[in-house]
Design brief:
This protein is an alpha+beta fold. Among the domains are: 62-142, Alpha-Beta Plaits, CATH 3.30.70; 145-205. The protein has six helices and five strands, in the order αβαββαβααβα. It has helices at 2-58, 75-88, 120-128, 145-171, 175-207, 226-291; strands at residues 62-71, 92-99, 108-116, 135-143, 208-216. Strands 2-3-5-1-4 form a five-stranded mixed beta sheet. Helix 4 (145-171) runs antiparallel to helix 5. It is flat.
């Protein structure tokens, strides 16, 4: 009977151990399933993040610039046309520089204008239409996508750091801790302002293209007019006055230098020479008398 009891106890213990093993295996299976579910749930999030990044990079950030040299009949008309082109295509005139003021010298005009990037080609065609002679142009493009993405990432990092410092600032109790956190916060905000300023500059440069136009009026082979002749006489008279004045100034400077030189060097030298000659002559007379 005792043997039977001991055998039953052993069998019960074996069953209990088997149940424990099966339970642990089941738990491991459930944990593996949970991990698989978690990975499956996180995979779409990663894919969406990557797709968002790719979508952001797909829109390239390109800065376009154009330089034109055009010969035109009238510089004033060309300036008005350039201004109208800038306004028509959503831009503005940055600067306008005219070289010379009179009819004989007013031969060049430089206008710098900005237009919408997607309307650059149309604006260039309208400017080319007013040329009257030779023309040259240069169009360049600069891809700043990588710099723009880098600025965006750095901005996110700096703003996250700013939020961390703000949380630390709320829990700071000591004065030195407050000052230290405020200094770090000020540095971070300064960096954020620099990054945002650069990002705004890139966005503006990408959205508005720059056109630099040099208008030139061909110089005539012969140009003569009563006004030009009068200007020639005026210029000749001015040249005579300039040369005469320069000569007079040169003479005055020469005299101003020579007078002190004569008084301090030549006159004492002259009188010293005369005295020396007289002295030598006075010594030679007795010698000649004795010789006779």
């Amino acid at each position: 009977m005792s043997k039977w009891t001991s055998w039953v106890n052993c069998a019960a213990l074996s069953c209990f151990c088997a149940l424990l093993v099966l339970g642990s295996v089941g738990c491991m299976g459930k944990s593996d399933d949970a991990g698989a579910v978690t990975q499956a749930a996180s995979a779409p999030a990663d894919d969406s993040a990557k797709s968002g990044e790719i979508a952001g990079v797909a829109e390239r950030k390109v800065i376009r610039k154009a330089e034109l040299e055009l010969q035109v009949k009238s510089l004033s008309d060309a300036q008005r046309t350039a201004t109208d082109v800038a306004k028509k295509h959503g831009g503005y005139v940055v600067s306008s520089e005219r070289r010379g003021t009179d009819a004989a010298r007013d031969q060049r005009l430089r206008v710098v204008l900005r237009v919408k990037a997607d309307e650059l080609d149309t604006a260039l065609n309208e400017l080319r239409a007013i040329k009257q002679g030779e023309a040259s142009e240069h169009i360049s493009s600069e891809d700043v996508t990588d710099e723009w993405i880098d600025l965006e990432a750095r901005l996110k990092t700096q703003k996250a750091l700013e939020n961390q410092y703000l949380e630390i600032l709320k829990g700071a109790n000591k004065v030195e801790d407050l000052l230290a956190v405020q200094k770090q916060l000020s540095d971070v905000r300064t960096e954020i302002e620099k990054l945002e300023s650069r990002k705004r500059f890139l966005d503006k440069s990408v959205s508005l293209s720059t056109i630099t136009v040099d208008f030139e009026r061909p110089a005539p082979l012969v140009s003569a007019s009563f006004a030009a002749i009068g200007d020639g006489f005026k210029q000749a008279g001015a040249d005579v006055l300039n040369v005469g004045g320069a000569t007079l100034v040169l003479i005055m400077r020469f005299v101003g230098v020579m007078i002190p030189l004569i008084c301090l060097v030549f006159l004492p030298g002259f009188y010293l020479g005369r005295w020396f000659l007289r002295r030598v002559g006075a010594l030679k007379l007795p010698v000649d008398a004795e010789a006779k």
